[in-house]
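Take a sample.
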Amino acid sequence: MSILKPLVTFLLTLGVSLSSQADFLKLEKFGANPGDLEASYFTPDIENPALVVLLHGCAQQGDELALQSGLFGLAKKYNFALLLPQQGLNNNITRCFNWYSADDFTRDSGESLSIKNMISRLKEQLGSKEVYIIGLSAGGAMASGMLANYPALFTAGAVVAGIPFPCADGLITGISCMRNGPSQTVDELVTLVEKINPKQKTWPKLSVWTGKNDSIVNPLNSSMLAQQWANLSALESNPIINHKSGYTVTLWQNSAKETQVELIEVSNLGHGIMVNPHVENGGEVSDYVLASPISTVKHVIDFWQLSLSINRNK
């Protein structure tokens, strides 16, 4: 009995995982693909669903991260679609998105253009009116670049254990940025993004996450990214700081007292996305998927207001 019980549990878990992954379809014919990426997607059974883009971290599969983080369960519960771009070994031996390469982070070039074309194709196919993006680690750095390059494409975003854009212009500066934070000031980071989008007046809402003990990506990156986005959005200069049990939330609000940028710093955690396995769709612990008093994706879906109504985009 002691041998059979864990075996049965494993097989049941495997069955659930394979059943969930069967819900993902391969995205075909999405236009130019200079970044040589692939993608899968999930769509609920409603018209015009909101679209959430998930960019995985190094050595990860997008569909597995969607399951482990709890995002897939939330997509089914609240009827939003998922787009999961996937990096391959042919592009990066550790399956990292090449966020530090000018060939890939420049607007309408490389991986950035591939992801943009994926979004445009699925948005048209599903009739989605709102697009959101969340990324972890290298995927977080790429999400930061996508938001900076194409702010008009997104309603809101979330960057987890990521890096402000543009922080690096090659592998060496990328490593330096990860370890030490940006070499630029916040004002310089703001100016660089404004030059890409000189006519942009409004910017997507942004949720920024870091573990305070992250030894892979310096938490300074997250605080500077949040401040960069608050300055871009011309938000109030004195943020509201709330100390919770196990984490701190810093909020930047607009003149209507609506939160547009938030920074969540989780105590005693390292590099990864946060999950709370004790709540429904709170996620499950895995590599770089860390047990926490707060679930990143559950909080972010609330922050984006996707949990307000399952039919909000009809």
User: Anything to note?
Assistant: Residues 4-21 form the longest helix (18 residues). The longest strand covers residues 259-266. The chain has a mean pLDDT of 92. The chain is about 35% helix and 20% strand.
